[in-house]
Amino acid sequence: MYEFKDEYKTEIAFIDEQHKVLFEIANEAYELLKNDYVVDKYNKIVELIHKLQNYTAFHFKAEEEYMKSINYKRMFTQKVEHEAFIKRINDVDFSKIDQNQDQYIINILQLLNDWLIEHIFSNDKLIGK
């Protein structure tokens, strides 16, 4: 479902490779949603959230260090958006996951979809220019 296409490339190799990992995490969430053989998805959802928390922190730090190294003019805006995303993913209420597990996965996918499409396509691509 989620595929890193040429249109998402920033032309900065390490950033593109890291973005591919974010697409892979989104794909894992999608596959979990569609898996009717796993009745209780709670542990897998928690694992996905932790993976997303850890990877985005790593990725944003690397991206921000790169922007700083090239004196990127929109770095502050990027940093604010990164912090907002991290806050959203860190504010997960794990007690609510069990209430409707599939809906929770859909919420994660919506967050990732908005981020991958909007942020990477609209903002991160500008770093490479």
UniProtKB/TrEMBL annotation:
A Pfam family matched in the record: Hemerythrin
Every Hemerythrin-like domain range: 12-127
Gene3D superfamilies in UniProt: Hemerythrin-like (1.20.120.50)
Coiled-coil residues: none
Alphabetical keyword list: Iron, Metal-binding
GO function term, MF aspect, one: metal ion binding
Domain of life: Bacteria
NCBIfam families per record: bact_hemeryth, hemeryth_dom
Family named by the database record: Belongs to the hemerythrin family.
Protein name per Swiss-Prot or TrEMBL: Hemerythrin-like metal-binding protein
Source lineage: Bacteria, Bacillati, Bacillota, Clostridia, Eubacteriales
